[in-house]
From TrEMBL:
InterPro entries: NAD(P)-bd_dom_sf (IPR036291), SDR_fam (IPR002347). This is Uncharacterized protein. GO terms for biological process: steroid metabolic process. Gene3D superfamilies: NAD(P)-binding Rossmann-like Domain (3.40.50.720). It comes from the Eukaryota. One of its GO terms (molecular function) is oxidoreductase activity. Transmembrane segments: none annotated. It comes from Capitella teleta (Polychaete worm).
Length: 95
């Protein structure tokens, strides 16, 4: 009985506070490859609306082909203020 009680309390404590992921938008940067791309694809597979920031056209194209229509891709170079401003406007228009 104690193990059952422990498991129930542990599950309640670990329960995410985000609510329904299907109603959320998450912006992920560095989505051309590596951790960013893996994160964007995983979130998309969970039903989250993903806004993926990619540096290259090839990265944007590949990610769009590999994910659902919930995923939106935007050009983003975090060292260039113009692309950051354009990405910001894209997000404002999307949401």
């Amino acid at each position: 009985a104690l193990i059952f009680l422990y498991k129930k309390i542990d599950a309640l404590i670990r329960k995410p506070l985000l609510g329904s992921l299907h109603e959320k938008y998450i912006f992920v940067t560095g989505c051309d490859s590596g951790f960013g791309k893996t994160t964007a694809k995983h979130l998309d597979s969970l039903g989250v609306h993903v806004i993926a920031g990619c540096f290259t056209e090839e990265g944007r194209k590949n990610l769009k082909e590999e994910c659902s229509s919930r995923l939106n891709v935007v050009h983003l170079d975090i060292t260039d203020i113009k692309t950051i401003e354009k990405a910001f406007e894209f997000v404002k228009d999307l949401i």
